[in-house]
Prior knowledge:
The chain contains nine helices and 21 strands. By secondary structure, it is α/β, with parallel strands linked by helices. The protein folds into two domains: 30-42 and 392-488, Immunoglobulin-like, CATH 2.60.40.1180; 48-386, Glycosidases (TIM Barrel), CATH 3.20.20. The strands form two sheets. Strands 1, 12, 13, 14, 15, 16, 17, 18, 19, 20 and 21 form an eleven-stranded mixed β-sheet that branches. The chain has an eight-stranded parallel β-barrel with strand order 2-3-4-5-6-7-8-9, surrounded by seven helices. Helix 6 (228-245) packs across helix 7 (259-271). The longest helix has 18 residues, at 2-19. One 2-acetamido-2-deoxy-beta-D-glucopyranose binds next to loops.
Amino acid sequence: xxxxxxxxxxxxxxxxxxxxxxxxxxxxxxxxxxxxxxxxxxxxxxxxxxxxxxxxxxxxxxxxxxxxxxxxxxxxxxxxxxxxxxxxxxxxxxxxxxxxxxxxxxxxxxxxxxxxxxxxxxxxxxxxxxxxxxxxxxxxxxxxxxxxxxxxxxxxxxxxxxxxxxxxxxxxxxxxxxxxxxxxxxxxxxxxxxxxxxxxxxxxxxxxxxxxxxxxxxxxxxxxxxxxxxxxxxxxxxxxxxxxxxxxxxxxxxxxxxxxxxxxxxxxxxxxxxxxxxxxxxxxxxxxxxxxxxxxxxxxxxxxxxxxxxxxxxxxxxxxxxxxxxxxxxxxxxxxxxxxxxxxxxxxxxxxxxxxxxxxxxxxxxxxxxxxxxxxxxxxxxxxxxxxxxxxxxxxxxxxxxxxxxxxxxxxxxxxxxxxxxxxxxxxxxxxxxxxxxxxxxxxxxxxxxxxxxxxxxxxxxxxxxxxxxxxxxxxxxxxxxxxxxxxx
Length: 489
Ligand SMILES: *[C@@H]1O[C@H](CO)[C@@H](O)[C@H](O)[C@H]1NC(C)=O
Ligand SMILES: *[C@@H]1O[C@H](CO)[C@@H](O)[C@H](O)[C@H]1NC(C)=O
Ligand SMILES: *[C@@H]1O[C@H](CO)[C@@H](O)[C@H](O)[C@H]1NC(C)=O
Ligand SMILES: *[C@@H]1O[C@H](CO)[C@@H](O)[C@H](O)[C@H]1NC(C)=O
Ligand SMILES: *[C@@H]1O[C@H](CO)[C@@H](O)[C@H](O)[C@H]1NC(C)=O
Ligand SMILES: *[C@@H]1O[C@H](CO)[C@@H](O)[C@H](O)[C@H]1NC(C)=O
């Protein structure tokens, strides 16, 4: 089988080489392609892009290693301003560490009681290991920011291992041994109390999560294990408790390490009869890619953490093709939004004093450097704002990736990624939208960071495209190895 396949492939390549000029393109040669968007075919509602200041990293963004107050503000503005980075999700870590320990997030319950009867002496320090300041400053630049409060572990007393670290289970879920009481209600109340403290600060928590990577534990930092059955046992307590206190809050499940791992948890949760006890399926992109729709019963899904992990700081757009480059992130996001109906994408840290590659912005004392990953986020989310709806879009070329989003006010964002090493001349037809008159292009490549790059008037097409109601049409160029977002207004 294998040798036959190789012969066939070789024959095809030889035939192609003699019959067409595919090997002779020059960097200035232009190919053409067509893009069609159908605004009448609607998919998921978008939440946006984001990042986190967990594990005390928010303190670095707010001066602990020398970033001056004016640069603290500027870095946060670069990330969250609608006209710069365009982010809108802040993922905060609901700390489980008693007291202040460098690199950990302090718990609102420093003295864990001996039994679930209490006493629960909650403490709010108006700081939350610098996450309150991160959230407040993000909200200053994006008043609609979506706050995701997520616990890595329950307080130690509520778990089978007795500590916040080293995994273990919430006491009260099936399979949790070494427990003398059921702590599920106590843990639910504790999570709600955290939301209440943010409410007292005037901040609405949009999404509440009880887990971080429950498939990847035990580990030596704050961590807790759960499969889908165990998640059912806890979420059936958390869900009504949280909704009673905050009717508008959404509940997350379950921040698994990869899309496949998340699917398994969701499947078991459903088997256990718990599919109604969450609102948003949350997953990380570390161990597996999204690839296809989630089994979330029609509920939205959100990628809530990912970064290079072990690499050196990489600020490039497209130099080596390494996974942390901005161009690659543009493609990861495309795949998640289009193939898995993902509503948003959250980078791991926002800003960190480091030589590594876990943050969107690298800090070095009072200096800061922006990675091109942020420009990939911005190319989507400066134009497809929170609340926009993804609509059908396709391109005639395999290496030209397109998605499209209709904003609440009727403006349309069409981000196009050209993976070829040559430019494409494109005809873009948008059916189902007649209420726009110009298309403004924003270019991101090795030399441009979401830079305005031309504006054309669109032609109105009567009954054109795939919609009965007509649409608009325009011509444009998409540069090689670039992302170009067309904003129709
Ligand atoms: C918040 O707490 C951290 C220690 O966790 C401290 O370094 C920082 O100065 C505090 N920030 C404010 C605004 O009080
Ligand atoms: C059982 O719980 C106790 C008390 O919380 C703890 O000290 C111990 O390490 C736990 N044992 C195991 C095997 O987790
Ligand atoms: C829930 O959201 C609605 C619509 O945004 C708002 O009018 C209402 O005040 C919110 N309710 C609470 C309890 O926050
Ligand atoms: C901050 O970054 C600099 C340069 O990368 C490094 O030398 C220093 O150790 C870092 N400081 C802290 C506290 O992380
Ligand atoms: C684009 O951003 C990078 C940092 O990501 C910066 O070094 C570069 O100067 C910027 N280029 C332009 C044209 O603004
Ligand atoms: C419509 O919404 C987009 C995205 O929020 C915004 O950039 C644009 O200015 C708005 N346009 C109008 C005409 O309100």
